[in-house]
UniProtKB/TrEMBL annotation:
Belongs to the GST superfamily. This is Glutathione S-transferase. Residues 5-97 form the GST N-terminal domain. Gene3D superfamilies: 1.20.1050.10, Glutaredoxin. InterPro entries: Glutathione-S-Trfase_C-like, Glutathione-S-Trfase_C_sf, Glutathione_S-Trfase, Glutathione_S-Trfase_N, GST_C, Thioredoxin-like_sf. SUPFAM superfamilies: GST C-terminal domain-like (SSF47616), Thioredoxin-like (SSF52833). Residues 104-227 form the GST C-terminal domain.
Amino acid sequence: MSLREFTLRLYHMPGLRSNRVVWAAAELGISLEMTEINVMKKEHFAPEYVQKCPDRYVPMLEITDNTKGEADKTRVVRIVEATAIIQWLVEMTPDVPLSPPMTDIKGRAEYQMWMSYVGCTMDSLLWTIRLNTSWALKEDERSVGNENYARTKWARDVLPRLTPVLKKNKYILGDKFSAADVLLWANLDWSLEYDLISEEENPDIYKYYTLLRKRKMRQDNYPPFVG
């Protein structure tokens, strides 16, 4: 089955987690139809969007089956969570190696581990900091304690885990770029907003960050935040 038999529409907001999907799709050579959802204007609360996505998540990938020769609206699948969307796209495009093959037991295990660690553990720490320092919560709802906990856990757990790997490897899995690098670079870019990494204190991590910042596919497919 080929992705050419499906219409892929991404509901996204430039500058947020949607960027990871846009970049990964470009690396895979996948064409996405785009519908912008401005969460700052609460467009994800619009009834027509809630009908498609009751959880009001952005991004969301809508997959429409065209195998009968035309779009079949009765056969539509929707995926939320940027990490899940990227994993699905990667698995549906096996001819573009953005993940180790199933026959590579060790490589596959490391890939799945990093996809989950970056997409869940690291992301949740960054989100906790954002919630308690920005527009995401009203000032009287923010918690300095929660912010400090996330910062402490980042310094205590995340940096020591990343540093030896990126000191040794060009990419997170070794010499080959993968979808895990898309997620990791996005979170490192996000972490710069909160001064969680620096070139002086984290040279190996920052070298990796700079390498991918200069990657042309990322530069061409990572739109800036539009508030």
